Amino acid sequence: MPTVSVGRDRLFKALGCSYSVEEFEDLCFKFGIELDDVTTEKAIIRKEKHLDEEEQSENEEVIYKIEVPGNRYDLLCLEGLAQALRVFNGVDTIPAYKVASISKETMLKMHVKPETSEVRPFVVCAVLRGVTFDEARYNSFIDLQDRLHQNICRKRTLVAIGTRDLDTISGPFTYETKNFRADELMAFYKSDLKLKKFLHIIENSPVSPVIYDSERMDTTVE
């Protein structure tokens, strides 16, 4: 089962309640998830680097590692966990989402070129408005995107998710392909620790998929 690491204090703040370890373990058991480990960010880093353990400082953030079901993608982030547990505890009602009613004239458009069928034939777009990020929320959002890539997106072989600030780009948008020097591109990204493991997806493709905005800005570039 996937394991989600969340800051205990931020989680408890989102839940509106504090728990002892035993109380939180009991809540997780009743809900159907499991508190797998209680650690700190520094301890995780030391473990990854195979360093000797040190005595925990009072100032270190406590991290809860929580196992969640493999088919509950909504639980792969702190916000989703908190929402689900608040509903379970009867604090909140089950949220109801709806698609906003927007006239065709004001809708942003994505034009899909036929040559994209050679490499990644489908594209899906959505606009989220009224979203405000602080550093912690932004990091949680990016972590969720990465976890989705590893799970339901099958390490980006099925789906690759990208997010852009709509204030910095403008529609209409175009999904098309471009030719590239494969040797140069692969050599460039092989030095990227995050992206090099995904190069095989398009390594042998004659073209590369790209999304341009109305100013021909490549919005697929991180």
Describe this structure in words.
This protein is an alpha+beta fold and 222 residues long. The chain has six helices and six strands, in the order E-H-H-E-H-E-H-E-H-E-H-E. It has helices at residues 8-15, 21-31, 41-48, 78-88, 135-150, 182-189, and strands at 3-7, 34-40, 62-67, 110-112, 173-178, 208-212. Strands 1-3-2 form a three-stranded antiparallel sheet. The chain has a three-stranded mixed sheet with strand order 4-5-6, with no helix packed on it. Helix 5 links the parallel strand 4 and strand 5. The longest helix is centred in the middle third of the chain and has 16 residues, at 135-150. The mean pLDDT is 85.
Descriptive keywords:
222 residues; alpha+beta; three-stranded antiparallel sheet; three-stranded mixed sheet; 6 strands; 28% helix
Shape: globular
Could you tell me the strand content as a percent range? 5-15%
Order of helices and strands: EHHEHEHEHEHE
**Main sheet characteristics:** 3 strands, antiparallel
Number of strands: 6
Gyration radius (Cα, Å) is 21 Å
In the sheet with the most strands, the strands line up as: 1-3-2
Number of helices: 6
